[in-house]
Amino acid sequence: MKWDDQGSSIKIFPPLDFNFQECLVFLARSDQEILHHIMGDYLYKLLKINGEFVLLKIGENEQSIQVEFPIRTPAQSIKEQAAAYIWKWFDLDQELEGFYDMANKDKLLKDIVHNHFGLRIIGIPELFQAMAWAIIGQQINLTFAYTLKKRFVEQYGESLTYEGNTFWLFPEPETIAKIDKDELLKLQFSKRKAEYVIGVAKAMESGQLTKEALLHQQDYQQVHDSLMAIRGVGAWTADYVMMKCLHYPNAFPIADVGLHQAIKHQLGLERKPTIAEIEEMSIYWEGWQAYATFYLWRSLYEW
DNA sequence: ATCCAGGAACTGT
DNA sequence: ACAGTTCATGGA
After folding, report:
1. Total domain count for chain A?
2. Which residues belong to any copy of the HhH-GPD domain (predicted)?
3. pTM greater than 0.90
4. How far apart are alpha carbons A289 and A265 in whole angstroms?
């Protein structure tokens, strides 16, 4: 991680191919999003670090990411953790030359990576949030998924209001582990999703499921198997979490209908491609399936 | 109304 | 291992 403490603000130095504006477009895709806000050219995000609310005002300054702290300047160690959060959030450890080399030769990806060069996978660093959001999004349209997430966060998350804007934190697993499934039914979760989300919360509360343990078992297949052993987590959810939280560039939610829509549109097909067809056309994505998928998702927001 | 949406578990073969 | 069925709820 490359960063610099400048007193009341910090600077983060991303790879040269990073494009902050492209990432902002993706972050702005839903007007129901309440876990971050975009105002003008700035991205606002509330974190809780060492028990302390830390509001980030994130902007671009030439080649660097500039982060200010509107509430108050935090201690140096907290500033470092905030920088680390952003580093992971924008997947800045990833070296993308290999991906771009591959994508420039791929008819399906070529135009998209050209149009959105510098976009990175916008992650979900917190494991519980990544899993709960994936479960919420299973088999429902994104609009409704955002509605459910908003209700969930406003019911169980902490918030802070600053200068008239309210910023929210995603609920902690310890909170959700204690609630009754009927409470989630009132928010219009299905019975199964209510069970799944509470089950994941309990597994995390008890320490059976941690991000650290998953990251420790490096092998893709091991992690995928571990995740799929959890009730409510199928192949799609496991790959989604490995892509958005665990930073596996080869994670591939191949059954994703958004991916299917993007491919259909990009190739001008009459129907959505089959899984077998996608396997065929993604042979050369090997190692970069997550980035290929993410760029295809990005292509959905311009037609 | 009808189809479908960033699926998963269950059941039967 | 694989295919078909059920679950579940709102958006367009």
Report:
1. 2
2. 136-301
3. yes
4. 19
Task: Work out the average pLDDT over A204-222.
Answer: 95
Tokens of A24: 């902002």
Considering the domain architecture, whether residues A69 and A143 belong to the same structural domain is answered as: no
Confidence band for A30, pLDDT divided at 50, 70 and 90: very high
The answer to whether residue A256 is catalytic is yes
The answer to whether strand C lies under 7 Å from the CB of residue A143 is yes
Express each pLDDT in A252-274 by its tens digit: 999 999 999 999 999 999 999 99
Mark the nucleotides of strand B covered by protein, meaning any atom under 7 Å from a CB. Answer: 4-9
Give the CATH number, domain containing residue A189: 1.10.340.30
Whether the beta carbon of A186 falls within 7 A of nucleic chain C: the reply is: no
Closest CA to A23 of A119, A125, A123: A119
Q: At what angle do helices A127-136 and A235-244 cross, to 10 degrees?
A: 140
Question: Is A259 a domain residue?
Answer: no
Q: Identify the residues numbered 232 to 261 in chain A whose C-beta atom is closer than 7 Å to any atom of strand C.
A: none
Closest CA to A169 of A229, A246, A85, A225: A85
Question: What is the pLDDT confidence band of residue A217, given thresholds at 50, 70 and 90?
Answer: confident
Q: How confident is the model at residue A303 (pLDDT cuts 50, 70, 90)?
A: low
Domain extent, residue A81, equals 3-93
Examine residue A114 and state whether it is found in any structural domain, yes or no: no
DSSP A108: T
Give alpha helix (H) positions in chain A.
Answer: 20-27, 76-89, 97-103, 110-115, 127-136, 142-156, 173-176, 181-186, 191-205, 211-216, 220-228, 235-244, 257-267, 275-281, 289-299
Is residue A301 situated within a structural domain?
A: no
Q: Is residue A74 part of a domain?
A: yes
